[in-house]
Structures are given as C-alpha cells and as structure tokens.
Amino acid sequence: MTGEIQPETAVERASAPVRARSRVRVHKTRAPFSLRCGALLIDYIVLVAIVAASTLFARMLGGGARLAGNSTETVGLLLALLMAVINYGLLAGLWGQTIGKWATGLRIERTDGRPAGPGRIALRHFVGYPLSILTLGIGFLVAAVNSRGRTLQDLIADTVVVREVVERR
Questions:
Q1: Residue 34 backbone phi and psi in degrees, to 5
Q2: What angle do CA 59, 65, 68 make, to 5 degrees?
Q3: Tell me: the pLDDT tens digits for 146-164?
Q4: Nearest partner of 26 among 153, 121, 162, judged by Cα
Q5: What are the respective helix, strand and coil percentages of the chain, to the nearest 5?
Q6: Beta bridge partners of 115
Q7: How far is CA 142 from CA 35, 100, 124, 162, in A?
C-alpha cells in the first residue's frame, strides 16, 4: 500500500453526479400597499381569534356560570393583549417581522437598510400605530400616495417596509 491517491479516470468523472450551481440573488423592493394591508389583516385576525375563542369558551360554560364566563372573557382579552405585545414588540423588534409580515414576506428596516431594532419598532408600533388610528386611518393611507410607500408610523420611526424578492439563476 503506497498511500498515493490515484487520479480519477474520465469514465469515473462522467458517472459522478452533476451538481448544478445556482446563484441566488435577493433584492429588496418597496412593499406594495395591498400586501401591507394583508399583513395587517393577518395580525388583526390572530388577535381577534384569541378573543373569539375565549368568548366561545365562556359561552360554553353556560348561563349558570356567569362569573366563570366573565373571567374567561377577561383572560381572553389579557391573552390578546399579551399576544399584541409579543407580536408587535418582541417579534418585530428581534426579527423585523410581525406574524402578518412574516406570512406575506415583508420586513421592517431602517431607511438605510439596517435592522430597525427594538427601540424603533416600539416607537413605530406603540406610538405610530395609535397616531395613525387617531387620524381616522389617514396615517395608514399615506403609504398609498408616498413614493417610498411609507406610512405615518414609518415616518415617525424612520423605517420602511420592504419585500425581499429571491431570484434563482
């Protein structure tokens, strides 16, 4: 035994599995207004589903258990509030995506492309969203006419919502 490695022959090379090399290119585009609305709708459905499930469970307890039913509804509201803080604060602060944005392929970033971070996300969601709602939704509609698709909460927190498009070559 010599310990030398024999070069492979042309036949061995031809029978080896061929690995196709594909290039993946990711580019970011402005998130379409309709997709942003869909992401917000998904987030809303998650919260309403928690409240609806707790209400149905409270009604299943029956009329004689009114106190238990009321406490069940209260627990449902508290769970929905906790889920809102987790979704809009924790998930978005750590990964730049709420459940709805994750489902639709959107991400919240700073305007210079860096991650938004928990502070900007908290400012965006817990100050900007209420202000957009207090303006009777006009804060959300700003994205439809803004050239970069930024809403009032995006302008307040200096963020932008982008869609990552993956191209395989």
A1: -65, -35
A2: 80
A3: 888 899 999 999 999 999 8
A4: 162
A5: 60, 15, 25
A6: 109
A7: 15, 20, 15, 16
Radius of gyration for the alpha carbons in the chain, expressed in angstroms and rounded? 25
Helix (H, G, I), strand (E, B) or coil at 30: strand
Helix axes 66-85, 33-60, angle to 10 degrees: 160
Give the Cα separation of 140 and 135 in Å (integer): 9
Torsion angle of C-alpha atoms 105, 99, 43, 103, degrees rounded to 10: 30
| φ, ψ at 26 (rounded to 5°) | -110, 125
Residue ranges of the domains in the chain? 26-168
Instruction: Say if CB 91 and CB 43 are below 8 A apart.
Output: no
Average pLDDT over residues 47-68: 77
Q: How far apart are CA 87 and CA 99, in angstroms?
A: 7
Q: Which is higher by pLDDT, 127 or 7? A: 127
**Residue range 89-109, pLDDT digits in tens:** 999 999 999 999 999 999 999
Q: Are 87 and 46 in contact (CB under 8 A)?
A: yes
**Please, what's the largest Cα pairwise distance for the chain?**
89
| Three-class SS state of 29 | strand
